[in-house]
Automatic annotation (TrEMBL):
InterPro entries: CHP03085 (IPR017519), DinB/YfiT-like (IPR034660), Maleyloyr_isom (IPR017517). Transmembrane segments: none annotated. NCBIfam families: maleylpyruvate isomerase family mycothiol-dependent enzyme, TIGR03085 family metal-binding protein. This is TIGR03085 family metal-binding protein. It comes from Streptosporangium vulgare.
């Protein structure tokens, strides 16, 4: 199954349902901003660099605002829905690259609303996310101020953060651990245990790519 396509469709439906002014977990962004981000990321490689590089963030923000003005909210939602756009149209690239991106941003919208419940993900998608966590924990947790041991419910351990100092244990499903590792600590349904100060530092840390 193409889970990137499924997440894209579900997120687009949610965008349409909530409208342009709904909150998201992306600090300072409404659903309008997030829809523009997704379109710019896929269709404007000249501006996508600012998503990761602070030096280019200003240009990316200007392009994003321009896209909002030109396309409008409904137009952006339809572009997200009809994607993948740009180079992501290449066979297999959407599935390989966008599954995680779209899942996380779908949850960014879902979990910013007043009422929500965690989803039970298909076993195949859970396995995909766990492989990503297991292989990328050191990268995702490189800015953690404490050592982090990730425990997947059902089996599996991944470790990241500094080798010395206090250690925090985080337990959850692969999907919830992925959200935790990508900076959504306070909205991930996980169990966190360890020294109180170490836990507080981890919960406030800027995690992810």
């Amino acid at each position: 199954m193409n889970y990137a396509r499924a997440e894209r469709s579900a997120l687009s439906d949610l965008f349409a349902q909530l409208g342009p002014d709904a909150p998201t977990l992306c600090e300072g962004w409404t659903t309008f901003d997030l829809a523009a981000h997704l379109v710019v990321r896929e269709s404007r490689p000249d501006a996508a660099g600012g998503i990761l590089l602070k030096q280019l963030a200003g240009y990316t923000a200007r392009v994003q605002e321009s896209v909002k003005t030109r396309k409008g909210y409904a137009g952006l939602v339809e572009l997200v829905r009809s994607g993948p756009l740009g180079p992501y149209r290449l066979p297999g690239l959407d599935k390989a690259v966008n599954t995680t991106e779209l899942f996380i941003h779908h949850e960014d919208v879902r979990r910013a609303q007043r009422v929500w419940e965690p989803r039970e993900l298909p076993a195949e998608l859970e396995e995909r996310f766990w492989k990503q966590i297991h292989g990328g924990a050191r990268l995702f947790l490189r800015r953690s101020p404490v050592r982090v041991v990730l425990h997947r419910i059902g089996g599996g351990v991944a470790i990241g953060g500094p080798k010395d100092g206090p250690q925090v244990e985080v337990t959850g499903t692969a999907g919830e651990l992925l959200l935790f590792c990508f900076g959504r600590q306070s909205h991930a349904k996980v169990d966190v245990s360890g020294d109180e100060e170490a836990v507080a530092k981890l919960m406030d840390a800027s995690l992810g790519v």
